[in-house]
Structure formats: structure tokens, C-alpha cells
């Protein structure tokens, strides 16, 4: 396989997603004579079957090819990134009390929390099993280096998740942009951008120094991605976006937008916003969600976040271009640069 | 280190537990300048710090030594078994709605379900990170074989857990001893006995054929262990056992004891038992739990389970002695044989 055919970024995303999905469906077990185990296998397929973007595997394959590697060698690893995304989303949806994921009820809404936790654990195990496959494909040493990247990544993801959950648990609202930044780098940026780039380069034979050059760029681009996600959550089209619009306000999520609002509005308004945000999800009236949204619009918080995301993505674009100017021109490199724009222009 | 000093089985368990615990505490992160991450590290230490039995690592080290290996080589793997136990228990306690674990409130009772799910995920990641350490200690090839054993094991554990959870979810009570057996082999026997034996032997250089000889014995002993656990849950001393006595009845758990009762008592009694078992935990009156317990005693269900556990453990004892009669006499072998008795004689 080569990525060098004439394709547009969005077509490339779609094509990659199709290939990685097929690879994952071939890997995940699909039938068992024991009816309960059979049902478990079906549940493990639920989130992977939903229409995700497939951004992370695409980044991994593109960077692998841009560094002169064969993207086929990165297939297990790209699929493992997608499996990480899926187990983490199942647990994240429970932890946040979410309703919708990719346009359908969340797994725990369909089957209850106990079963959904365990299905997430099942996919988590499958992620490591997928990574074990690298031993045959790439040899033991490289396979181990990739597994170590995933170990570091997983540590970041759970730590970032804990920071966010503990803000909710301890009713913390006195947050700064720096707090958001720390949480977001750990929770989102590492697995959305930094690690997909690093492992793609690693598989292509990049040095440790080259891999480390992705840290700053990955942070900027990954945080830009999350901010855009938070913006879409407030002003997106539910059918396109796939989650409930305003869901972050229902869930009391500490987004950059909310942090900007609380640090910009009057004390009385801030108290009212916190009062609404602190209510349990079911107790929040749509009018109250609208009230918070109106204040966000009034104080330019959404606009601020959009600009922040654009600046970060622009920085990432420049960093990539300058840092890796020595890489030969390739369509993979071109598509990756175009993807950076997609990160902040997307509507889903 | 050698296990060949003159020690009794219980002393050996205690000593091994101390050493593996120290190894795990040295491995798990213990401090971070970011207060929320610091708190997360403390929560990951919570279950490992509680007084577990350390049976699984002990089995792994003993079998390694009985096969002529150096137990020091099995330390990472024994510690990974203990980490598996801990992440699985955190999630299991949420899934079962349990109150107590090892004499203290369950993690989700202390910090809420969202944070506890994520702490379990954190320890799950740490299990694989611990297994990655085997590359330096044992070389890539052996490290990968061990990781593959853990992949298979993890698949069994989540599948067994799903079988049990789906019985609860679909209100199934028409279960046979064969149903219990299938669930219990997957959920408990694999990680309590079969895999600890297999990886211990693998590290000592045993062949695949030799490892496969542990499958039958591990099933028998592992199921015996679980049955004894279910017996203790009903008639143990809460302070010694560390969980609430009768908790399995509160949780509506399908134990061998309950399955025996339902298949032995009258239809009217069975209907009444199912009615009580189906109630939500909080709605169950202590008198109703006692009612079920009295019926179990009346129909000899607890006695039946005890005998079943004894027969299974005796089979395991004979199987081990016969199958591995070619292993030279060693104290490790002796202690392992003594441990088999502990499996069904223990009170905690």
C-alpha cells in the first residue's frame, strides 16, 4: 500500500478509516458458541462500528510514510490507537454521565454501567494484544519500543482524566488557562497527536531525537483539537457532531470556554454560572443551559477559544514545516499539513 | 533469593506477599508536584496496600522454582499478577455494587464510581508496563511469550465477568452447575491458578507441552478456590474474611451454593428465593438474607459446595503429583502441595 495516490485529506481520512476498521473487525472476535460470550463480542464491536473520524490512525500512517516508512508496517499500531480511543471513550462516557456518542446512545445507556465497564476493559486488553502482534511484523525490539510508547501514553491519559474528574468531584471552578492546558495535554493531546506522530516516525526508523521533536507540535495541535471539540459541543449541528449540543454544560465540564467566561464575567454572573454548572445533569433546565451559553457568547468566550485553537494549529503547522523541512516532499507530508487545518475547521 | 529455606506454607505466603508488595510499591509512582496527579497516585496504591493473600504471585514463584528456575526471574510477572488482581477487583467491586474489600470500604465507596473506574484503568496500564520490564530481565522473546499469556488470560477474565454480569442483567436463575463451571473457569480459575502456574513454568524454561499440563489442574484448583470463597462469604468471620458476610446474597450473586439450592428446594421456595435475590441490594432486609441462608443450610447447599471444593482440590493435588512426578523433590514443590490444602481450608 502507498499513500502517494492523488487524494484529498478528507478522502484520505475516510479511506484510512475504512482500512483500519476492516483490520480491527478482522482482529476482534466475532462469534462464540457460548451465547453470553457471543453477546460480549458483539458489544466490543459496538463503538468500533460507529462512525468515528479515524484521525489518530491516519496521523500515524501519514507520519510513517512521510519519514520514508511503509504504512503497512504501522497498521497494528494505528489499529491499537483506534482501540485505545474506543475503550477510553466507553469509560469516559460512563465517568461523564454522557448520553450520546457518535450519534447513538452511549454503551452504558444501552447495557448499564457494570456491563459497559467490562466491555471497555475487554477492548483495553485487545489493544495490548494488537500491540503484541508487532513482534511478528516488526521484530521484538521495535515492538517493545512501541509498547513502551503506549505505556507512557496510557499513563498520561488516565492522569489527565483524573485531573478532570477530580475537578468535578471537588467542585473546583477557580481554574486558569494553565490548569486547562495541563489537563488537556495529558488527557487529549498525547493520544490524539503526539503519540500517533511519534510511533509513526518510530516505525519508519526515526531516531529518539526526531521523535522528541513531536512533543511541542503534538501538544499544540492536540490542544487545538480539543478546544475545537469544545466549541462544536456548544455551537455544532447535533446530527453532524454526533453528541448532544450543550452536553458539556449539562455535564459541568471545565472547558477553556467556561474557564474564560468565569474569569471574564462579573462575580454575580460567575456565581450564577457555577450554580447552574453544579446542578446534577437531570436537574438542569434547557433554559439554564441556554443562559450559560448566552453568557459565553456575550463575553466572547467561544470566539476566544476559536482564536486560541487557530493560533495553536498555526503554530503546529509552522513547527512541523520548520522542524521537518529536511523530509523530502511527499503527498503524505502534504496531506498531514492539510489535516492540521481540518483539526480546527471540522464540524464533527 | 531462594525459596529453599525451611518455611511453612503460610509463612511463605506472608513472606512472598511482603516481597512482591515492596516491589510493586517501588514500581508504582508515589509522588507528583501536581496535586491532582499526586492524589491519583495515592489512589492507585490503595488496593495494593490492603492486606491481600498474595496467593497468585506465590504460586508463580513456587512453580518457577519447582521447575528449576530462579524465582527472582519471575518477580515482574508475579507482580503483574498482583496488579491484574487489583485493577480487576476495583472494577468488579463497582460492577457488583460491593461495599467492603479487604476490610475497608471499596474504592468507589470512598471516591465515587467515575474516579474509581479510572484508577482501575490506571492500574491496568501499570500491569502491562510491569510486563514490559521483562524485556530487560528475560530477553525479548520470553517477555513476549509472557505478555501473550497475559493477553489470553485477560480475555478469559473479561469474558467470565461478562457471563456473570449478563446473568444479573437478564435476571437469569435457571442455571446449572455446568453454567457455573464455565463462568468460574474463565473468571477466576485462569488468573488464580492456571496462568500463575503456566508463566512460572515458562520462566523456568518449561516446554509448551508442560505448560498445557497445568490447564486441567488449574481449572480444578481455581474453581475449588472460588467455591471456598463463596462458602466463606456466607459463614465466615467478617473481620477475618474482609468482606461483608452474606454479601453475595445482597448482591444477587449466582454461586454454586445458590444454584444447588434452586435445583434442590421446592418450586415455591425457589420462587421466594428468586424474589429475594432479585430485589435491589438496598431493599433487602437482613431477615430476608437470613431466610435464604437458612434454606441453604436446610438443603445442605453449603455442605455440598464444601465437599465439591474438597473433591476438586484433591483432584488437583493428585494431578499435580502424578503429572509432575518427574520434577525433583524440592521445598518449593512441597509448599505448593501444601498450598493446595490452604485453598480450601482458609478462612480469609
Walk me through the structure.
Two copies of one chain form a homodimer. The first copy, chain A, contains 18 helices and two strands. Chain A has helices at 9-27, 35-49, 55-66, 75-96, 107-111, 113-132, 134-138, 140-169, 177-203, 208-212, 214-235, 238-241, 247-251, 256-262, 267-278, 286-298, 301-323, 331-345, and strands at 100-101, 104-105. In chain A, a hairpin with a 2-residue loop joins strand 1 and strand 2. Chains A and B meet through helix 2, helix 4, helix 6 and helix 8 of A and helix 2, helix 4, helix 6 and helix 8 of B.
What are the main properties of this structure?
Farnesyl Diphosphate Synthase, two-stranded antiparallel sheet, 1% strand, mainly alpha, globular, 348 residues, 18 helices, 75% helix, homodimer
Q: What is the gist of this entry?
A:
Two copies of one chain form a homodimer. With 348 residues, chain A is mainly α. Helix content of chain A is 75%, strand content 1%.
Oligomeric composition of the shown chains: homodimer
Indicate how many domains the architecture of chain A comprises: 1
Mean pLDDT of chain A: 93
Share of helical residues of chain A? over 70%
Q: Quickly give the CATH architecture of chain A.
A: Orthogonal Bundle
What's the total count of β strands of chain A? 2
Amino acid at each position: 500500500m502507498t499513500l502517494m495516490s492523488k487524494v484529498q485529506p478528507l478522502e484520505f481520512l475516510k479511506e484510512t478509516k475504512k482500512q483500519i476498521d476492516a483490520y480491527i473487525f478482522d482482529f476482534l472476535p466475532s462469534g462464540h458458541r457460548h451465547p453470553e460470550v457471543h453477546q460480549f463480542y458483539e458489544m466490543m464491536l459496538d463503538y468500533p462500528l460507529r462512525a468515528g473520524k479515524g484521525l489518530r490512525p491516519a496521523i500515524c500512517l501519514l507520519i510513517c510514510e512521510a519519514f520514508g516508512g511503509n504504512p503497512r508496517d504501522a497498521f497494528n499500531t494505528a489499529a491499537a490507537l483506534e482501540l485505545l480511543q474506543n475503550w477510553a471513550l466507553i469509560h469516559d462516557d460512563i465517568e461523564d454521565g454522557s448520553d450520546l456518542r457518535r450519534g447513538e446512545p452511549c454503551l452504558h445507556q444501552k447495557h448499564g454501567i457494570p456491563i459497559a465497564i467490562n466491555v471497555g476493559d475487554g477492548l483495553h486488553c485487545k489493544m495490548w494484544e494488537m500491540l503484541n502482534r508487532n513482534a511478528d511484523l516488526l521484530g521484538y525490539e521495535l515492538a517493545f519500543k512501541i509498547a513502551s510508547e503506549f505505556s507512557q501514553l496510557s499513563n498520561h491519559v488516565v492522569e489527565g482524566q483524573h485531573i478532570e474528574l477530580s475537578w468535578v468531584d471537588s467542585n473546583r471552578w477557580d481554574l486558569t488557562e494553565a490548569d486547562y492546558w495541563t489537563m488537556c495535554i495529558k488527557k487529549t493531546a498525547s493520544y490524539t497527536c503526539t503519540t500517533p506522530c511519534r510511533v509513526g516516525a518510530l516505525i519508519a526508523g526515526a531516531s529518539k531525537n526526531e521523535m522528541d521533536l513531536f512533543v511541542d507540535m503534538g501538544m499544540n495541535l492536540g490542544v487545538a483539537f480539543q478546544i475545537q471539540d469544545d466549541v462544536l459541543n456548544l455551537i455544532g449541528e447535533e446530527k453532524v457532531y454526533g453528541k448532544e449540543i450543550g452536553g458539556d454544560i449539562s455535564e459541568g465540564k471545565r472547558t477553556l470556554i467556561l474557564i474564560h467566561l468565569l474569569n471574564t464575567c462579573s462575580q454575580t454572573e460567575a456565581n450564577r454560572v457555577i450554580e447552574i454548572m453544579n446542578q446534577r445533569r437531570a436537574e438542569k433546565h434547557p433554559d439554564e443551559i441556554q443562559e450559560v451559553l448566552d453568557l459565553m457568547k456575550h463575553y466572547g468566550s467561544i470566539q476566544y477559544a476559536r482564536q486560541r485553537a487557530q493560533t495553536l494549529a498555526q503554530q503546529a503547522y509552522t513547527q512541523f514545516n520548520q522542524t521537518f523541512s529536511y523530509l523530502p516532499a511527499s503527498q503524505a507530508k502534504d496531506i498531514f499539513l492539510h489535516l492540521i487545518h481540518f483539526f480546527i475547521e471540522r464540524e464533527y
